[in-house]
Sequence to fold (254 residues):
Amino acid sequence: MSIPTAAGPPARVLVVDDDPTVSDVVLRYLERAGYQVDRAADGLAALAAVDRAAPDLVVLDLMLPGIDGLEVCRRLRQRAVTVPVIMLTALGEESDRILGLRLGADDYVTKPFSPRELVLRVGSVLRRSGVGAAAGPPGADPVVAAAPGAGSRIVDGDLTLDTGRRLASRRGTDLTLTVREFDLLLHFIRHPARVFRRDELLAQVWGWNFGDQSTVTVHVRRLREKVEDEPAQPRRIVTVWGVGYRYEPAAGHA
Fold:
């Protein structure tokens, strides 16, 4: 039974996994949490499913027949599809996990995983993406996102963020940011000149008390490619060696 919300129909989640046992378990838990769930068993079917009925989030296994999950993620981002992606990775696939984050995945869950943990991750990512009908885990209160247009407009030099619509632009050109990239940029802008350790960013932006801190490194690198004139010599998101990162606002905007 779907959890009713004031923001419209339940969020649509696409689960992509060729293991029917895993797929069935994930489907049951997500449906119990109030989501509408579609399934695909391989990469090509996943891309076709996205074209057929755009999901609000994709749960994507890396090991798929045909084209793998990394290639699916790559093709989605090449097509400027900004749907949030949560990757399912095996315990020893650290290099693939990092590559997936570089390609634009928003989060990952390591197999074997708790279905309840996955549901919590799905809810967290959907809330951050502004999907109004994001459900929570079984028994949780429904989450209703802010109404469209709510929020504020933040300007820092040539960079503008609309927090209500979760849009960012630079010099008048829209930036294609993933959910986590937008969250990270917003967090930096709201705390100018403050130095953050990677574990602090992991806790405050991702909501993780533990996890792979290279996730932060990868997202900072991707964000620099979109907001810096010279990503290799950043002026906005500065590395504080041995500590973490600091955001330098434009002159007059501190």
In short: The first helix runs from residue 20 to 32. The CA atoms of residues 160 and 169 lie 5 Å apart. The chain has two domains: 12-129, 153-247.
